[in-house]
Every structure is written in structure tokens, then in C-alpha cells.
User: Fold this.
Amino acid sequence: MSRLSMILALLVVVLGAALAWVVARPVDAGMSEAEVRALVEESVAMRQDTAVAGLDADTLNPLIERYLLENPRILQRVSEALDTELRSAQAAETQAAIAAMQAEIYDDPANIVLGNPEGDVTLVEMFDYNCGYCRQALPDLATLLAEDPNLKVILKEFPILSQESADAARVSVLVGRSDADYWDFHRRLFTARGQVTGETALQTAQEMGLNRINLALEMGTPEVGAVIERSYQLATALNISGTPTYIIGDELIPGAVGIDGLRTRIANMRNCGKTVCAPADSEG
Assistant:
């Protein structure tokens, strides 16, 4: 018997039998809610095996069909409850994973830090230079950095779209280690025409005064590759599969949610230490 059939059978048969049994059984008016609940649970435990086992498909299916026809919204409510439960479980798993990966997220020496290094809220972005949504989200990040002096931003290379993205990311890692203005380099690549490649990144770095030949020689070293590999490992641990992906507090935010969504989460982090604050208790 399928799980759904079992559930519906219990709804039709067991609960009905349980209620009848409880009604028929004398109940002390002074019983607590917990004691009454215990009576129902006892009834269900006693009767569910025999109730369901005694029904064959010819008997059960019409009962299920009739119940659904009389209560057409039951499946919608079950589906909504299941979705809520799954979302809650997924959020809990994500929170636990983020808590376990604090050092990898915030303390990687290759992190690019923008804004206020001592800011009271930290926003992490994992990106790919050939990601169209990352490109669209760049003005949001620029606005946040300009308007919020207490915001710390961490950028992590996460090239997943092409080998060209990976090559550009390798150059970007080296630019981040140099004295060049990384934010300027970052914006130039995201506003470049066409696909961003290793050549695009090398040319941009050269225009900013860096030695192109040295960058070309160093971009393929294992040390540079290890930086990007750590991003891949972090993504695997947090089940990140796309860009941009933001991390703020204990929340993972997939996709370009827009500046208002980011502002709200940043404000909530300051107000209650979480990206979603519980509503204030109403007075009276």
C-alpha cells in the first residue's frame, strides 16, 4: 500500500474509529488536554493495524475517492504542509552547514574584502565573470558599498560556467594579491563586452599597470588553483550550484535577489542578528 493510501486510510478509518472510541469511553471532565490527546493516540495505536489490514483495494479505493471528493482541498493542505516542512528542514541543514564552514567562508586568506573590514555585517558573494545575473547584480553591490559604511563584503571566485571563466578567475586571484585596485578590476571585467576570458583579464590587469607576462606565468600555478578549488569545496559543502550566491548570517541566498532584498537582510542582521526577524509582539 502506498504512503498516500495509508495516510488517507488512516484519515477515513482510524481517526473515525478513534473518535468513536473516545466518545464511547467515559472521559473525566477534569482531564487535561494532554490526557485527552493520550487517549486518542492510544486508540490510534490499538486500531490502525487492524483497521487498515482489514480493507482490500476494492473497499479502500472508493473510500479514498469519496473522502477526496467531499474534501477536495485536503491534498492542497497536505502538499502545503509538506512544502513547509521540507523548506524548514532544508533551512536547518543550510544553517548547520554554514556554522560548520565558518572558517572556510570568512577566514580564507584569499578572500577579497571590500567596504569596511571591521563592518558589523558581512555579505559574501560567490560569482562567475561570465554570469549574466552577476553582471546585473554588480550595481546593487556598488550601491551597498557606497551607502553603507559599516558593511563588509567578501568576494569569492567561483568559475563554473566555462574554462574561460576559470582562466579569468586565476588572473583575478593574482590581482587580488597585488597592490592594484581590485574593485576597479572587478568592475572592468563585468562591464567588458563579450565573453570574459583569461585574455580579457590579462589585458585589463596590464592596463591597470600590472606585469602581464608575470601574471600569465603565475596564473597556472597550483597555489592559484588551490584558491579556486577551495571555493568549489565550499560550494559542495553548502550545496551551491549557481551564481551569484550570497551568504549572510546563517542564510544562503541563491540568485540575484535585488538590492531591496539585500538591504532588508542587512538591516535585519543589525536589528536581531538574523536575516529574518520575528515580528514584534503586539501590545494589548
